[in-house]
Amino acid sequence: MPNEPKIIKAAYTGKMAICRCKKSHDLPFCDGRHRGTAVTPWKFMVTEGQEIKLCQCGSSQNMPLCDNSHEKFSGPSPTHATKKMRW
């Protein structure tokens, strides 16, 4: 299902940065290509081995993390289409 979250596993303990500018060559991770723009990555702490659910539908109230908002609809997100992420 296209709105299901993307699940990744943290390979380290520390700060994770998720790209918001969509210019990264290492999506979904930030590689710094946003520098010089007003866009900044989403940053949060992770623990090695932790499973992280990244939002794909764009409706999460806790971006970039999935909050299961995708379960409320079956098609494209009607309210947050501009935030839609495709890693």
Q: What share of residues is helical?
A: under 10%
The secondary structure category is mainly beta
List the secondary-structure elements in sequence, H or E. Answer: EEEE
Which percent band covers the strand fraction?
A: 15-25%
Beginning-to-end CA distance, first to last residue: 14 Å
Could you name the ranges where pLDDT drops below 50 across 5 or more consecutive residues?
A: none
User: Largest beta sheet, briefly?
Assistant: 2 strands, antiparallel
Count all strands and give the number. Answer: 4
Q: What shape does the CA trace take? A: globular
Count of domains: 1
Tally of helical runs: 0
> Mean pLDDT, as a whole number?
86
Compute the gyration radius: what is it? 13 Å
* Oligomeric composition of the shown chains: single chain
Strands of the biggest beta sheet: in what spatial order? 1-4
Care to describe what's here?
- This protein has 87 residues and is mainly β.
- The chain contains no helices and 4 strands.
- The protein has one domain.
- 20% of the residues are buried.
- The two termini are 14 Å apart.
- The strands form 2 sheets. A two-stranded antiparallel sheet has the order 1-4. A two-stranded antiparallel sheet has the order 2-3.
- The model has no long low-confidence stretch (mean pLDDT 86).
